């Protein structure tokens, strides 16, 4: 029987540049294998194969790549305390306990440097194009965030803060009651979704599949969704309740979802670009616009809101085009490296990692 598989993002192409939460998700693991090596050396394929091998026995977490839909940046088997992650740029990882916990796996040993030197000029050119494409995307996303802040102002000015605080207090009481757990809570920071070359993507259905009580927040920009989620997350930590905190893939300073698995509760921003609707009995809608915003705000600023929404959408589409360009250049780079890689060496590295994971499995069972 297949155990539960979780999919999420720990890194993202945001309005603040590339941002990641890898350390948060690797915290507490006994063994971490950090893969080094250029594009096309089979890192994602290796990690998927390792995860697949243990899926039938344990829960497996796949950390997805925001820059290449379908690829992964890591695989974690929490019950064994093992993780295998891509430690190359832009999510470079530095070991805290090298050898004792983290170990570098150099997949660069698999390539023929003579073949790569033959393509030196092309590799340098592609690297420059990739960097320029990401710089363009991040610059455009930064402008989009400024427009989004402008959009929010229409609703911030119409927000009833007293009602917002009351709603948050009601949810805190409903979720936590008198719960006070005598332990340090486990807190994981992740991204709800990601701006990818294929557009926005999220894994909300997968991440909340086991949750009975799901709260879908509806509303407008600036209607207090993130602020409420931050207060709920802070309350959980004060009470010793474990929390999965999912940041906005566009603005990492904003929150889009919090999951309290111990309480069987998930609450998330269910507006575009990660809009979802109730699909089962435990789903409830919290409409921030209806409950907290002055009636008639949409109508009052109708033309201005249409304009700001159109400008924001245009910038997001343009930024996505540059992510697509970066991915196209990266694929060309991968093709060059693949031609120079001896994949039998990569397979041997995979077998060595799997052997160590099996030893960890035996140790945990013992």
Automatic annotation (TrEMBL):
SUPFAM superfamilies: P-loop containing nucleoside triphosphate hydrolases
InterPro entries named among the record's database cross-references: P-loop_NTPase (IPR027417)
Superkingdom: Bacteria
Protein name: Nucleotide kinase
Organism: Melghiribacillus thermohalophilus
């Amino acid at each position: 029987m297949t155990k539960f598989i979780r999919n999420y993002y720990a890194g993202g192409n945001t309005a603040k540049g590339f941002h990641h939460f890898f350390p948060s998700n690797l915290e507490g693991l006994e063994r971490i294998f950090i893969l080094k090596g250029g594009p096309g050396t089979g890192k994602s394929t290796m990690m998927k194969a390792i995860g697949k091998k243990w899926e039938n026995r344990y829960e497996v977490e796949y950390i997805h790549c925001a820059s290449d839909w379908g690829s992964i940046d890591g695989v974690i088997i929490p019950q064994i305390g093992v993780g295998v992650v891509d430690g190359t740029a832009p999510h470079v990882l530095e070991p805290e306990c090298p050898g004792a916990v983290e170990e570098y796996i150099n997949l660069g040993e698999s390539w023929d440097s003579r073949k790569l030197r033959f393509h030196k000029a092309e590799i340098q050119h592609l690297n420059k194009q990739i960097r320029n494409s990401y710089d363009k995307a991040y610059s455009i996303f930064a402008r989009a965030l400024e427009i989004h802040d402008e959009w929010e102002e229409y609703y911030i000015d119409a927000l009833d803060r007293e009602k917002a605080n009351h709603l948050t207090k009601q949810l805190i009481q409903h979720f936590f009651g008198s719960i006070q757990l005598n332990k340090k809570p486990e807190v994981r920071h992740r991204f709800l979704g990601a701006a990818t070359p294929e557009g926005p993507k999220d894994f909300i259905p997968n991440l909340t599949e086991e949750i009975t009580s799901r709260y879908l927040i509806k509303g407008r920009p600036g209607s207090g969704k993130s602020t409420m989620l931050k207060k709920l997350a802070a309350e959980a930590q004060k009470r010793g309740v474990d929390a999965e905190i999912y940041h906005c893939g566009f603005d990492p300073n904003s929150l889009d979802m919090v999951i309290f698995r111990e309480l069987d509760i998930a609450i998330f921003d269910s507006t575009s670009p990660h809009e979802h609707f109730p699909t089962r009995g435990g789903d409830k809608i919290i409409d921030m616009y209806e409950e907290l915003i002055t009636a008639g705000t949409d109508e009052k600023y109708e033309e201005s809101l249409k304009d700001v929404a159109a400008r924001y959408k245009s910038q997001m589409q343009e930024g996505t085009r540059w992510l697509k360009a970066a991915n196209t250049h990266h694929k060309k780079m991968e093709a060059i490296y693949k031609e120079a890689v001896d994949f039998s060496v990569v397979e041997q590295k995979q077998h060595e990692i799997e052997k160590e994971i099996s030893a960890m499995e035996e140790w945990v069972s013992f």
